[in-house]
Amino acid sequence: MKRCLELAEKGFGKVAPNPMVGCVIVHNNNVIGEGHHKKFGDAHAEVNAINSVKDKSLLKNSILYVNLEPCSHFGKTPPCADLIIRYKFKYVVIGTLDPNPLVCGKGIHKIASSGCDVKVGVLEDECRELNKRFYVFHEKQRPYVILKWAQTKDNYFGILNLSAQSELVSDVPSERCRIPSYKFQISNFKSQKLVHRWRSEEQAIMVGTNTALTDNPQLTVRNVKGNNPLRIVIDKNLKIPSRFHLLDGSVPTIVFTAKKKSLKKNLEYVIIDFKKDVLKQIMNELHKRNIQSLIVEGGQKLLNSFIEQNLWNEARVITSNKKLNNLSEKGNGIKSPKINSPNSSKEKIGNDELKVYQNKREQFFNG
């Protein structure tokens, strides 16, 4: 099963919204076949493992190991449970059940009903941890939420400057307004490169209106190879100028707003009710669109909203060795959000330090 997990992890960032799955086939204590799900839409792990076995006559006397329950329905590919039954495996070992309502025990029942001996629950916690995005999506009916920000050594998030650094925004002269500017580079290049890698591994990335206006972010993958995530921005009154990166149509983007606006290439406007729970509406919409993971790179207000509503699973905080001395006295320092959970890991990235926090109040493990 550990080998299944090693194989499954090779699909990280490539198979979503499908889960990561690895499969190992053993005959007389010898591994005769291996496979993993390589890319969304391609063959599943069980298919690849079975296809890797040269002498198919050995399969009826072999053990098939897989970290997730084999599918029992027709999707992009035929049911893996049917393939296992066809080759008459004598024993199947499964890490954990598939939480997808289309499967959820049906694959196990189908295989067991064929006369095959089935064992479930081997390294179950490890199997669930690997596919935590998949489990949160199906069990919580929302994406797995990763909060991310960079802060100074003295816990500042940015600089607030209402004068020289402010920028006039809006394409309409009569509607132009000044937005507080607090953009400055906190983390080093290695940390920035790591952030781009994170973006390539998740399905979506999100910011609020103020961050879009003050930073004019691209929210793309530029410093590493990989796919760009779906960009999401909250813009109630459509203040973001059309010339800004988020509205350039280069990457699929969703704008959650209160105002109606026509679709454009790679740009969709979704109306929500800002008098109701905004984040809940957004999470529901992303769930409908099968978005299983979301990075929130927003400003202080947006990040604190996720924290206050306990709507997060993981927080990745990069702390530099820079300080913004006496800013609190001048009223120009923007304090970083606070996480009450203890950090689960930390590592040095040059002069920066990365701490990762897990939301213990939002556990998805059973029991």
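the 2nd protein, sequnce then structure:
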Amino acid sequence: MAKKIEIMETVLRDAHQCLVATRMRTEDMLPIAAALDDIGYWSLETWGGATFDATLRFLKESPWERLRQLRAAMPKTRFQMLLRGQNVVGYHNYPDDVVQAFVARAAENGIDVFRIFDAMNDIRNMKTAIEASLKTGKLVEGTVCYTISPVHSPDYFLGVAEKLADMGVQLICLKDMAGMLAPYAAYEIIKKIKSRIALPLHLHSHCTAGLAPMSYMMAIEAGADILDTAIAPFSQGTSQPATEQLVAALKGTEHDTGLDLDKLGKIAEYFYRVRRNYAEYESPVNNQIKTDVLTSQIPGGMLSNLVAQLRQQKAEDKLDAVLAEMPHVRKDLGYPPLVTPTSQIVGSQAALNVMTGKRYSVVAMETRNYVMGLYGEPPGPVSAEMKAKVLGKKEPITCRPADLLKPGLDQARRDSAGLAENDEDVLTYALFPEIAKDYFLARNGRGDGHQASGSRP
């Protein structure tokens, strides 16, 4: 049966997060906005993930204002965001009232599709965000994080998808954040999900191991409906397959996307010029096929940032050792899928193990919180050595982690008094208190407004 394949374009979010450490400025997005709006994408990913944090921290820009400006410049195209469930756009669980208020405000400012995931595939950590997003009347993609381990199987991923469908989501997303999904595995999992769940399936992958273009073709044969791609200058490497590549491959077939290659070519010309502005954030792995990701499992968005962090510590030569240590830490933690925040937890602990020269001589607080169950239920058992070191005679929590949190908005409003100018500022403070304070002071001319980390060369 002929079926047009739809495209989500990632250049304004995940593509630059993966390739230039999330540093693209709004001023480089707006000049091309009208051309992007004219293409006919199923959706444009414009917000969420690390962009909220990076926009404040490094660029001293308002993420809320970015969303409004992009929405005004692109009125025709669906806007999509990545929402980390109970983690929202941060790195730990937030109270339900913060999650609910954030979702409502994001919808008001122009988000049409909420892609909601949890790093542990723990449905409890997605429940509040899904319910809040459905309440806005927007589309909700319930997300299954793909990974490879002894405890993950096609039936496991189907089970997560079925639970999400039962919660009322309108789409299922299979999220392959590290680019590990092989072609025949993609076919098997997608075929299984599509045979049991009558919802559109959206596939997200990365080219880190060079598998994604082949996996996309097999996904189409298995019944996938929407695929994530990035315009060529911000594609490949740790990013997504090129939009033009997929459009050309399907042209004239029963799956023709209907997108115009000439129009895409003009957008590509613009972004080739833009990418040169961010040369200092390029990762040495951007143009390599790294099949060792099948071992390290590090997601595309984290790899460029890990390189940047090691470079700042003059320890870039330790990258291979950190990547080699990550699968050992991941096994000890019960094989969590590696995506924010679990990728940061595993990556940071692996870096500590390498830097100190002795495994777990220093255990990061985030690692301790993970073992305590504060991030959710691990997919597999945590190692006895890790439990003994972190828990002693204590037992990990078994409830939904957010049940332990008090409401946070009123406290954030009190704590940000004199700095916050509106409800969006209060939400920003609730998510990132220290970063928000620095941003507010710089915005109001009371800080130094230092932007070295986000400046252009």
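The chain is about 45% helix and 10% strand. Confidence is low (pLDDT under 50) at residues 449-457.
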